[in-house]
Amino acid sequence: TFLQTAAKRGHLPVVELLLTYGADLNTGPGDLYQGRTALQYAAEHGHLHLVTFLIQKGADIHSKPAQTGGLTALQAAASRGHLEILRSLIIEYKADVNEEPCKASGRTALQAAAENGHTAAVDFLLHNGAKVNAVPCDQKGRTALQAAAGNGHFTIVKMLLENSAEVNASPCSSFGRTALQAAAERGHSKVVRLLLESMADINAEPCRKKGKTALWAAAEGGHFDVVRLLLENGADI
After folding, report:
1. pTM for the complete prediction?
2. Spatial separation of the C-alpha atoms in residues 183 and 207, rounded to whole Å
3. What is the mean pLDDT of each run of 10 residues along the chain (237 residues)?
């Protein structure tokens, strides 16, 4: 909608004008892939002043995300590492730090922050009750550890392990990866080594749909150092 577009760009005067003329503050994302409400867009793009304004005008901070690639306002802010917005939503407006992800390609706030390498946001969320082992969504879901490992965020992987992240958490059923499989697939040898030292199952079964073992994923990607590391540590050929 026009309101969602203006909120995404951070145009507060335009948002105010549209609301004056009757724009619906809480129009949902519908069935759009990665659709957002006005508040979700403002949170995702770091517009703190607009987030505050929209909430004060009655925007629903718990509005459901789009079913595919959707994010709540809190999850959207976490995905971009907007720490001040996270603080505002959780501390001032009592957003649920453990809001469930959408069905496909969804992320909890912690999963989103971990996936995108936002160390300060991960630390803040953990200290405010985020579940480190929250179950991922069914399709292309990731636990926080799986998400961080897949993108090679070593510091966050270490932080999550120190906060009792399950190193061998099962992958989601469709396009899922264990933490080790995710790191191996992208060739992140430093993360692979850390996970192996943390007792990751080197021969964990792949998920049912589009799954890969760690060795399969590394070999397919041509990641020589990771393939060698896995073989030296007992990966089945």
Report:
1. 0.96
2. 15
3. 96 98 92 87 98 97 92 98 98 97 95 98 98 96 98 98 98 96 98 98 95 97 98 96
